[in-house]
Amino acid sequence: MKMNRILPSIVILGLLLVLCPVSGEESGIIGGATGTYRVHCNVDGARVYFDGELVGEIQDNILDVPVYLTGTPYRSYSIEKEGYRTYSGPINSVPAKGQVEHIYVTLNALPPVQYGRIHVLATPAMSEVTLDNTPAGQVDDSGILVIYDVRPGGHTVVVSKEGYISKTSSVYVDPNEIVKLPVTLEPVKYGTVSVNSVPPGAGIYIDDRYMGETPVMLDEVSIGTHTVKIELPGYQPYTMNVQVSGEAPTVVNADLVTVPATGSGQAPLGIVPLAGALAVSLLLARKRS
């Protein structure tokens, strides 16, 4: 029974398709007749884009791009390859059915980059070197590190090693130039900091790094300005900026202040007289009554 109902519908649909054919242009469906864009280019392997979409690569100086006549017309093209200037242009025509529209492009090579070199002559050996915030290597026992393929222009070189003060240098490299950069790192110098507190037993932090409890004598604090913080539960934190030198010890004496008590349960002073006045008024009112 179900098959008998379906067969008439199929027959009617077939008759409609035969009697009333619908073209691709009327239906909006992409398909049917095609034309071709033929792109001519002097560089094989160049990538071809139509309206920003990759459509292929040049082979034997040619790329054929078939297009459906019922599709949306392309408006622009671009051709690019590393080492060449990108070429872009408009598409002003659409190929007719079976026809070929030719696009001719000549890519021009970019001038080759003439790299330079930086010879870092560093003391001490085994120092770490960065170029423009990118690791460039380590100075070997010879005290030399050669940085190859440096683009012309300004650069920042940082040489560092644990136990030494890092040094930053600005260098300018011309095309095909070899720049020699001598760098000597100075050892980090230390001073002494004596920290005491009343009461004792407070935690000590120098530049937010825990250093122990008071009282203490710290012997290896680098010369310069530091922030000393002293903390003890129940007391307000104590903070002080100190200047450490390599001569006399820097002394920090902190008299810690207790944290004010809160929630003691005592009534504010202004409420007590008010409560007394209310009580007297009630007593007088009862006697009169």
**Cross-sheet strand order for the largest sheet:** 3-2-5-6
Dominant shape: elongated
CATH homologous superfamily of the largest domain? Carboxypeptidase-like, regulatory domain
Q: How many β strands by DSSP?
A: 21
The overall pLDDT average reads 85
* Percentage of residues in helical conformation: 10-25%
Low-confidence stretches: 22-29
Rg (C-alpha, Å): 43 Å
Blueprint (SSEs and pairs):
Layout: H1 2-19, H2 24-27, E1 34-41, E2 47-50, E3 53-57, E4 62-68, E5 76-80, E6 87-90, E7 100-105, E8 116-123, E9 128-131, E10 134-138, E11 144-150, E12 153-160, E13 167-173, E14 178-184, E15 190-198, E16 203-206, E17 209-213, E18 216-222, E19 224-231, E20 238-244, E21 250-255, H3 271-288
Parallel strand pairs: 1-7, 8-14, 15-21
Antiparallel strand pairs: 1-4, 2-3, 2-5, 5-6, 8-11, 9-10, 9-12, 12-13, 15-18, 16-17, 16-19, 19-20
